[in-house]
Amino acid sequence: MNILYYIFFITTIHSVKLNLIKNQNKPVCANCKFFIANKNLCRNFGNVNIISGEYTYETAISVRNDKDKCGEDAIFFKKNNYKFITVPYYFAIDNTLFISLISLIIFNLFLILLIK
Fold it and tell me: Which of 14, 20, 34, 81 counts the most CB atoms within 10 A of its CB?
């Protein structure tokens, strides 16, 4: 009988915790195709410098806090179906030195194996 009390207690606590979390059923910017992960920017909202042609984007948090833009409900959200490409891409951009060193080590090991 004690086991039933524990199970009831655990399921009750778990459901209470989930109900207290705000915005848990709203779209997340990290899953949007407009999200620039390594800089936390939104590619959907920005400006172009007409002299240099350089793009400047707004931060994702400012876009989500502005009701006239994406807003809390993420009205311009589009699912990123190519996340398996974009996540490694932004990892490579952020860690170019690390990737270069690993490539150099692998190349050296390959040369050592060829010499032997």
Answer: 34
C-alpha of 9 from chain center: 35
SS3 56: strand
Asked if residue 99 lies in contact with residue 91, where contact means CB atoms within 8 angstroms, the answer is: no
The answer as to whether 21 is a domain residue is no
Read off the pTM.
Answer: 0.62
> In sequence order, what are the beta bridge partners of 46?
57
**Residue 96 belongs to what domain range?**
82-116
What is Dmax (Cα atoms) for the chain? 76
Asked, for residue 7, whether it belongs to a domain, the answer is no
In a domain, 99, yes or no: yes
Q: What is the pLDDT of residues 67-113, one digit of tens each?
A: 999 998 899 999 999 888 888 888 888 888 888 888 889 989 888 88
Total tally of structural domains belonging to the chain: 1
Find the length of the chain.
Answer: 116
The dihedral of CA 80, 86, 88, 90: what is its sign? Answer: negative
User: Which residues does 4 contact at the CB level (< 8 Å), separation at least 6?
Assistant: none
Query: Mean of the per-residue pLDDT values for the chain?
Result: 84
